[in-house]
Amino acid sequence: MRISAKADYAVRAALELAATEGDASVKAEVIAAAQGIPHKFLEGILGDLRRGGLVASQRGGKGGYRLARPADTISIAEVIRVVDGPLVSVRGVRPPALSYRGPAESLLPLWIAVRANVRKILGEVTLAEVAAAKLPGDVLGLAEDPEAWTNP
C-alpha cells in the first residue's frame, strides 16, 4: 500500500482542523503554512473533503474551513477514501473483484487479509486520537517493533 501525497496532505490538513479549538474556521493559507502543503494543491484537497462531507467551509472575513463532524467520529480511513478512493486495490481493482488461478489462487485471501489489516488500523484510528497523540495501544505496539522502522 502506498500513501499518496494527496492522502498525506489531506490527513495533515484534517489534523490541523481537528486541533482547532471550538467551531473556529481556519483559512487554507494557515493550514498550508503550518503543514508545508502547497496552497493550490491544498485548496483542491479541501474541496474534496468538503464534497465528501468531512469539512465545512465558510466564506467571508471570518471564513475558512472546519471539520463537519467531531474529530472523534472521523477515521483516518475516511479522509483517505475521500481523496484517493479505496484503501487497498490491486491494479486499481478492489480485491473481492479479483480472481486467480493455479498457484496464484491463494493471492486473493492474502490481498483480502492485507485490506482487513489496513482497514483495522486506519478505520479505527480517529483524527482526535492522532491530534492528541493518543494512538490506540495495538497501533503503538506495531510501531514499537524495531523491524517496522527498517526497509528490508
From TrEMBL:
Coiled coil: none annotated. The keyword DNA-binding applies. GO terms for cellular component: cytosol. SUPFAM superfamilies: Winged helix' DNA-binding domain. GO terms for molecular function: DNA binding; DNA-binding transcription factor activity. The keyword Transcription does not apply. InterPro entries: TR_Rrf2-type_CS, Tscrpt_reg_Rrf2, WH-like_DNA-bd_sf, WH_DNA-bd_sf. Pfam families: Rrf2. Keywords: DNA-binding. NCBIfam families: rrf2_super. This is Transcriptional regulator. It comes from Streptomyces antioxidans. The lineage of its organism: Bacteria, Bacillati, Actinomycetota, Actinomycetes, Kitasatosporales.
